[in-house]
Structure formats: structure tokens, C-alpha cells
Specification:
alpha/beta; Rossmann fold; 3 domains; two-stranded antiparallel sheet; 48% helix; elongated; CbbQ/NirQ/NorQ/GpvN; P-loop_NTPase; MoxR-like ATPase; ATPase_dyneun-rel_AAA; ATP hydrolysis activity
Length: 297
């Protein structure tokens, strides 16, 4: 079995991870910083699992910024196949080349000659996985919402994450010269295979503590008054404790903070909450429940 390509460590210590991610706009706790450091040092993909809106995708983006890497994203969805994840051939362009070859010779060209001609780099459409493997520059490969893809896609990922190589029958095996940092995210809508999990380090992300979310709000919306940030975080956490169709995400907390700033509000009283509730709650039933249980009526 070929050995996976090497990767130079991007971080010198756990403290270095914390510092550089914070500079990139992502405030990690000790567990996040430690797990990222170990994934980097061990050369392992990082599987980040948790509810929607807890900052999984933002972590991958911050990693790319912190390491000066190109972010390549594979967005998973039901029906995703090899052609959309790895590569496919430009069939229209191949057909035009075949027609041109036939026209030039006046009769049917030799198939072996045409075959070698049309299955070359010129006709290859590289998709995210192949693109990340072929890059020689620093790369962060984000495989987003892995749990939304069909189980068959996991089998495709195993070869890529084990050996960092892709086999194209017409061209041979392409092996990475520089292994990308890989981050997989999952909302835990279905259980991922044990084979896939074995290849990864695992990080469970939940909504942050009140103190950490307040720090996030003040770092991203620095003009917001600390007291108002405190009110905001307390209200959002109260909403998350309700049985809602969609709990407010961290990004929606930030949107709400920016909204209050733009409106010039200095307190989050009931009128302020009622008039801006659509920023954080996107279902009518959720707004009704929040209004009733948080006594906003």
C-alpha cells in the first residue's frame, strides 16, 4: 500500500492554534484548539459533528485563513455522485473533437488514436476532491454536511482520506504531493460509517457557553455595548431551551447583534425583541412559541 504524502505541521502548539484562529475571527475553546493541533500533527482528517449553526463550517474557513491556505469545499447533498465529487469528462468537448477528427480524415478515424486524444487533461473536469489532491500549495479541504450524502459517497471518501489518491482509469493514479488539511462536518442527521470515523479525529461541537458566546459577539460586533451583548446572549440561550423547529445559530446571534447596533437600540426589551424576532427565528411557529413562553406579548 502506498504511503500517504507527508504534510508539514501548520501549528507549533495548542496556544498557537488558539492565537491564529482568534486572529482569523474564530474564538476556540481548549478542546477545539487541542483537537485541531492534534489533527494537524497526526495528519488526520478532522470530523466535526454537532447541531446546525454551531460553527463547524466557520472553523474550516478560519483554519484556511489562519494557515494561509486555499479553501476547497465539497458541499454534500442527497444524490451527490463521483462525477460531482471527484471528476468527470467534458463529453461535449470530446464529441466535438471526435467529429473534427472524422472530418479531417474524411472517414472514421482509428478509435485507439481518438481515444488517447480525447481522454487527456484538456477534457478533464476536476471536481473538489481531485482539485484538492492535485494542489501543491497549502489547502484546506472542507467536506461539508457529510451526513447528507448517500452512504456510497463514504466509500468514495475512504480511498481519498486513506491514501490521498484518486484513480482515473484513462489516466492512472493521481497521488497528492502535498496532503491537504481535511475537515468533514456533520449535523448528525444519520450515523456515519465506522470505517470513515476511524480515519478521522472527532470533535463534537455544541452551542458555546454564555461567556464564550458573549466573547464571540463582542469580537465580531465590537461596537455593541457589553451590557447589551449580555442581554442578547441570555435571550438567545433562552430561545434555544425552547422546543423550536430551528434554534438560533451563532451566526444568527451575530446578525441580531448587528441589527440592534444598526437600529441604535441600547436595551433588548420586549418591543425590541418583537420587532427584530425575524432575524433569529425563521419559522412562524417558533416566533409564536418564543413570544408566548418568553412573555413577549
Amino acid at each position: 500500500m502506498p504511503r500517504p504524502p507527508s504534510q508539514s505541521p501548520q501549528f507549533s502548539s495548542v496556544a498557537d492554534v488558539s492565537k491564529r484562529l482568534s486572529t482569523a475571527g474564530y474564538l476556540p475553546d481548549a478542546q477545539i484548539a487541542t483537537t485541531v493541533f492534534l489533527a494537524d500533527r497526526l495528519g488526520k482528517p478532522l470530523l466535526v459533528e454537532g447541531p446546525a449553526g454551531t460553527g463547524k463550517t466557520e472553523l474550516a474557513k478560519a483554519l484556511a485563513t489562519a494557515t494561509g491556505s486555499e479553501l476547497i469545499r465539497l458541499q454534500c447533498y442527497e444524490g451527490l455522485d463521483e462525477a460531482r465529487a471527484l471528476y468527470e469528462w467534458n463529453y461535449k468537448k470530446q464529441l466535438l473533437r471526435i467529429q473534427a477528427s472524422q472530418g479531417a480524415s474524411g472517414d472514421a478515424a482509428d478509435w485507439n488514436t481518438v481515444h488517447d486524444d480525447i481522454f487527456g487533461e484538456e477534457f478533464l473536469l476536476s471536481r473538489p476532491l481531485l482539485t484538492a489532491i492535485r494542489r501543491s500549495e497549502p489547502t484546506v479541504l472542507l467536506i461539508d454536511e457529510t451526513d447528507k450524502a448517500d452512504v456510497e459517497v463514504e466509500g468514495l471518501l475512504l480511498e481519498v482520506l486513506s491514501d490521498f489518491q484518486v484513480t482515473i482509469p484513462e489516466l492512472g493514479t493521481i497521488t497528492a504531493t502535498r496532503r491537504p488539511m481535511v475537515v468533514l462536518t456533520s449535523n448528525a442527521t444519520r450515523e456515519l460509517s465506522e470505517a470513515l470515523k476511524r480515519r478521522c479525529l472527532y470533535l463534537a461541537l455544541d452551542y458555546p457557553s454564555a461567556e464564550r458566546e458573549r466573547e464571540i459577539v463582542l469580537s465580531r460586533v465590537p461596537d455593541l455595548a457589553p451590557g447589551l451583548a449580555e442581554q442578547l446572549v441570555r435571550t438567545v440561550r433562552a430561545m434555544r431551551a425552547l422546543e423550536l423547529k430551528k434554534s438560533p445559530s451563532i451566526s444568527e446571534t451575530l446578525d441580531w447583534a448587528q441589527t440592534l447596533l444598526e437600529l441604535g437600540l441600547d436595551t433588548l426589551d420586549e418591543p425590541a425583541v418583537r420587532s427584530t424576532l425575524g432575524v433569529v427565528l425563521k419559522h412562524a411557529s417558533d416566533q409564536d412559541r418564543a413570544a408566548a413562553e418568553l412573555r413577549l406579548n
